[in-house]
User: Fold these one by one.
Assistant:
Number 1:
Amino acid sequence: MKITFRKLVIKNFKGIEELEVNYDASVTNILGANHTGKTTTADAIMWVLFGKNSEGQAKFGISPKDKENNIIPNLENVVELTMAVDEHVYALRKVRKGVTNKKDERTGNTIECFINDRRLTLTDYQEEIKAICSENLFKAITSPQYFNSLTADQQRALLVKMVGETSAEQVAAGDKDFAAMLNEIGGDDIKAYREHLSYMMKQVKESLNALPERITENEEMRQQLQDAGTNFAAMRKRLGEIEEAIKKYDEQLLDSTAAVTQQQQQRAEIRRQIGEIEKEQQAITYRIDTENRKQAKLHDDKVADLEYQLKDVRRDIDKKSSEIGRYEQDLQSIELLAADFRKRWQEVEAETFEWDTSKETCPTCGQPLPTIDVERLKKDANDRWMNAHMEKQDALDAEAAKMKEQKRQADAEIYNGIGKLEILKTQETDIARKLDEARQETVALSKAEDDERWAELQSECEQLKHQLNIMTAEVTGSGDNQIILQNKADLQKQRDQLKADLGRENLIAMRTARIEELSEQMRTLNQQLTELESKDYTANRFENAMIRDLESRVNGLFDLVRFSMFETLLNGSTRPTCVMTMHGVPYNDLSNSEKINAGIDLIKAMSRYNDVYAPIIIDNAESCNHILPTECQQIRLVVSMDEKLTIVN
């Protein structure tokens, strides 16, 4: 659809008394000095179409005024616009008339609307105009400044509507990593997915940072046990040799008493009992060693839990301190506002009614008004002033109450925040104390020798061994047997000492097992971190692919301008935006001529998308030496030295 203006007629509209503009099919130049009515022609077009001026204001000064800035009474404001919409011609006319009461006082206005000389109600007239072209679309394709008057969100929504949304599946097509990621997140938002990954990576890193210290603590404890220089392998070998030698001595003693069958059976029973006792002792030793490992692990877990608690409460302290700081800044802002408020209050309180004596003279004939009329006018003016003055005071009262409430809320938040901060600091001190105490604690490791049952068994075992030695000595009764018994006793002492020394090996094994457990946790967490970072990298690539796809399709609409549809934040994430540039320069930094051509480039794209073409009204056209050509009409408002409007086609 193509809209073409043919003729514009203006009568008594703003500062124009009467004007007729016949538009050229391609370019019409409207020239004139400042304040000669160039912008008024644009206001007239927008008013006859949509009842607003070129800035979108429904209430603006339509009525002409005299040199003293008084509205000239009894004038009809008329705007007629003849335009073609494809093959159809529409003659639009609006007439604004004043409405008076019985005293011939103007009380309002009425508007008459006509299309092709057919009178319509204002509602029907607006519906017919809307059927041709909506107000927003008309402004978008006729004003080079319109697009950049929108917010970034509105601009972005309009551009996305023009190019259409590309689905995540379409962007992911051909990339197996993208496809796997979309399958994992389901219908969730990619930004929420990345925030979740960031949180998980932070948690894993905190856990990883705590592990090296805990591993070092266990390595130091293990090293202290190893520093004794004991060779446990050699000790176990020597223990085996001693056990074998004792066994041989027992066999020699047994052989020497073979003749005494009854004593041999008794000794065998004693040895069986000794074996049962030693077996039970070994079970007790294993149970105690297991409990020792459990206690060591509980101690390590307690320290780790307190460390986590301390980190959490310190994070809460930092957060609460920041909140208090923000509210203190709010209080400072309120104090500044209060100072300004007191100044304005004093100004309002100091205001007094002042009568304009020029009102005592008739504006038409210049004669003094009757005293009764002057008094009435003065009373009316004083009443209006009093009402306005009281409204100002009421507004100031409301503002004061609002500031007082804001200060009360800020004070309350600071008071409550300080209380909570003190609680958190108390918690911090308590947790830090508990952590220090826990770190200083020495894990009480039990020894088998201290177990009551083990000691009872040891006593029984020693008695049985003593009994066995006596029986053996009685059987042999020879010097050789005495030597064997002495040698066996010496070996038994060495064996007992070796067993006691080998007890440290269990403690070293406990620390080694704990180190391996923590190291395995570290390997697992590192693997988790690698997987999370890989997923975040894929998500970041996917976000960039979505950005490139959208920006490529948006920028493909235009010849000159380019758009950045996303902004990269300091943490690497992105957020939607809409920033227009031309030749790499932001729109706000462009010259006036570049802004005009940028706006025309936008209009050309929006006209193509909507398939609606309308005259482009270019204000300050004199600032641009080369205005982009367009398929539709151009109405150029040019500042010149002409004292009256001049139309050049």
Number 2:
Amino acid sequence: KYTITRFIYLSSIYPILRCCTKYSSLPFPVLRLKDFTRQDATMTCNIEAVIFTTVKNRQICANPDDLWVQNAILHIHKVDTL
């Protein structure tokens, strides 16, 4: 089963900061991904991550070092340029 993103939400007032706290344990099918953002490791967000948005607007945290993640990013860039 896929792990949907585990976020912690941190905010005193604004803006709300979301942080991935762990990675999905399985690769996600690239055809079900539509977008992504990157999370840098900071004092607040302690891991680097790629946050994918699925076609159903769910978010999945992924390890940027995993080959499937790098291939998914390339696929999304390719689709965006068509």
Number 3:
Amino acid sequence: MVRSDIAIITAYNDMLSAHQPYESYPQRLKQALHSVGAVGQVAGGVPAMCDGVTQGQDGMELSLMSRDVIAMSAAIGLSHNMFDGALFLGICDKIVPGLVMSALSFGHLPAVFVPAGPMSSGLPNKEKVRVRQLYAEGKADRHALLEAEAASYHGVGTCTFYGTANTNQMVMEVMGLHLPGTSFIHPDTPLRDALNDAAARQITRLTETAGNYLPIGQLVDEKVVVNGIVSLLATGGSTNLTMHMVAMARAAGIIINWDDFSELSDSVPLLCRIYPTARRISISSRRRAVCNWSCASC
């Protein structure tokens, strides 16, 4: 039996809630790979910054640039040309697009992206909005505001609203780059662990040595790109993806522009509203239901 060597590219840091769960992922993935006769190695790490933290700060102009830095950094990790496939760990704003661009630059390798999953619900959105409004009106002090924010974003996982990170998770699953049903399972749960193990097993099935060779350069075609755009439009996702999808597609040799988004939006209905476009919602379950519908329909 020929052994598969699998690269692990990680965007772990413990500054961002969405990326903190990745601390334990490499070791677990290595164990899962070992259980099926494969070997996993951390081939490289990439930076991960949060637009929400840097907004209005002196570092915010680095955010978009970081996408291309991530793409280049991950490519350096893969450049050793010793791997049969790659697992990519990252989820937030510029990280996923950068990792996808990197994976496509090594389009002969199969790739599976492993999400961190969403933070569990904290302070209800209605209450969070109420406290923010009171603070804006000068009727609540900074301490009350910070208490509300800490209660809203209180644990690990992607932030509890449908911003770019959670839109990334949706789009990646619909494009077939996440395992089906994995995007919106909370971190540090038995199901999350089982799905991560399944991702490790799946990447070994896609390698050339396994006989089911499916490199990412073959997987990501025009239909897959359109499916990603449709899922973005149908769920009212982050407008940042209208920029990133263009770059991701170009890395696959596919040319799209905003005219394509406009044309598709004429025929794609908005299936649901998720905070911040809705005041309240069971964000994990609703996103999961919409993602399952989108995957079944594409």
